[in-house]
Amino acid sequence: MAVSFSFDQLKKAVAGDEIDTVLACSVDMQGRLVGKRFLAKYFVESAYDETHGCNYLLANDIDMEPVPGYKAASWSKGYGDFVMKPDLSTLRRVPWLEKTALVLCDVLDHHTHGDLPHSPRAILRKQVARLKERGYLAYFASELEFYLFNETYDSARAKHWQNLETASPYIGDYLIGITTKEEGVMRRLRNDMEAAGIPIENSKGEWGPGQEEINVRYAEVLEMADRHVILKNGAKEIAESMGKSISFMAKYNYGLAGNSSHIHNSLWSEDGKTPLFYDKNADWTLSKLGQQWAAGQLKYAKEFTWFLAPYINSYKRFQAGTFAPTKIMWSEDNRTAGFRLCGEGTKGIRMECRIGGADLNPYLAFAALIAAGLAGIDEKLELQKPFVGDAYQASRLPEIPKTLREATETLAKSKMLKTALGEEVVEHYVHTARWEQMEYDRRITDWELHRGFERY
């Protein structure tokens, strides 16, 4: 880990009254931090070893509603505890909160103390172990996009999330002048994240008014997922402390660009020194291993789309002409593609998956991409020729699932993911997806009322 804040340093900081609160956090199915705030002296006395949480936290929906039908946790099983085991290598100061440190926890079975299989961090750790068995190290980086508003969360709620004032009035994609107006929040976000051990390479305006993109430096895949979830949580806290709000919704407004989370991924030698995707003599300078990895991700993209787009709203983002992909194909440098080759001709060569929205859970998304990549290697798949042109207009290319319902049923039938992640894990998240669909199907939307109240 890049964070140089050891447990011994924490104890000294607590003794010196520099730290008085420790956040012990696990990650829920939605990719949010859940956990407890400890008076720091009690954390360093005992809770550093383990604490506990209700197991419904990995069997509920985004509204914290206990969802019936899960095998792992239910009313009939009494909603008991699971163990939250702090991973002290993730310990860090939280500069935007007073005298506060944070640690991420692995979620363990209360009785066996083994990894809880459907825990997002455990799912990714399993895929990391599969990489290690083959002598591979995966480097990932996720680009996060979000909208910044001159609204508090309270004022946005009072307006029913309509007619919100964005931090800039028009598209400021790459424009320095307009993003200077947003710099109060963005500068603090970059600097506070850096101080928390999450190195931010840059931020920029995106293709929507008040829309931002923030780029975290690449890291080993588990560390990158940890950075991702802490960044999302911290960005909201920083914005709120400054009277602003941030949304990571995939598509908050029909007429504006959606929020993506492009995922860059490559394999390296286990010591992290030798790029395994670079071969100057290979087609596109992408090694045979890299081509097989990419071919696997293309072959299984429909099956793992749910891990990149887990909500009803996620599928509203896939619209032609919006820089969000609609087709499953790859190109050398083409932003209409579902997958794009970046860094061609350099040691930094990598695949960029452009399907995911900013609402994804990084542990699940990264794990799915690894599983598909390894399947491509194991099956010795051959990479098709890169697409050239406007993929939005290409009628013969395979399409990204258009709806949550389609993506869910494709996931449910995936033999590859059941083998790689475990049948019970896939079943758990298929149940999550079907609940989301059912909750939407039975609700009356503003669009229905506007269209039909008088006219039907």
TrEMBL record:
GO biological process, one term: biogenic amine metabolic process
The protein's required cofactors: Mg(2+)
Chain ranges passing through the membrane: none
GS catalytic domain location: 120-456
GO molecular function, one term: glutamine synthetase activity
Presence of the UniProt keyword Acetylation in the record: no
Domain of life: Bacteria
Purpose of the protein: Catalyzes the ATP-dependent biosynthesis of glutamine from glutamate and ammonia.
GS beta-grasp domain segment(s): 17-114
The protein's name: Glutamine synthetase
SUPFAM superfamilies: Glutamine synthetase, N-terminal domain (SSF54368), Glutamine synthetase/guanido kinase (SSF55931)
SMART domains: Gln-synt_C
Pfam families to which the protein is assigned, alphabetical: Gln-synt_C (PF00120)
Record's keyword annotation contains S-adenosyl-L-methionine: no
Keywords recorded for this protein, A-Z: ATP-binding, Ligase, Nitrogen fixation, Nucleotide-binding
PROSITE patterns, alphabetized: GS_BETA_GRASP, GS_CATALYTIC
Xref: PANTHER family: GAMMA-GLUTAMYLPUTRESCINE SYNTHETASE, TYPE-1 GLUTAMINE SYNTHETASE 2
Family membership noted in the UniProt record: Belongs to the glutamine synthetase family.
